[in-house]
Design a protein that fits this description.
The chain has about 100 residues and is mainly β. The chain contains 1 helix and 8 strands; from the N terminus they run αββββββββ. A 6-stranded antiparallel beta barrel has the order 1-2-5-8-7-6. It has a two-stranded antiparallel sheet with strand order 3-4. This is Head-tail adaptor protein.
């Protein structure tokens, strides 16, 4: 067990909410995660800060193992979004987060 194992779960439970996730060709289900319409800043693979201006969704990797571009996310705000791309947040923890860039349908 690593130092960071469990931290993503704690943060997601504290800051997140239930979001409906529908994988392409799959069945919709609720997952505890963090949706943001406001821009977010992350550290890119090269160590530089990158601003993501599109809506974003942070979700634990273990909750969406089948995650793919084109999957749908409905955060409960009356809108549905499509996953455009996604990336690891760099944590080696078993419950590490994935950051998804979304587009409004």
């Amino acid at each position: 067990m690593g130092v960071f194992d469990g931290m993503a779960s704690v943060l997601s439970n504290a800051l997140g909410a239930e979001v409906t996730y529908t994988p392409k060709g799959g069945v919709a289900r609720s997952v505890q995660s963090v949706f943001r319409e406001q821009p977010v800043e992350i550290t890119g693979d090269d160590g530089r800060d990158v601003a993501i201006l599109a809506p974003s969704w942070r979700v634990r990797r273990d909750l969406v193992p089948e995650l793919a571009s084109g999957d749908l996310v409905a955060p409960g705000n009356g809108k549905t979004y499509r996953v455009v791309n996604y990336m690891s947040t760099g944590s080696p923890a078993a419950d590490a987060m994935i950051l998804c860039q979304l587009e409004d349908l």
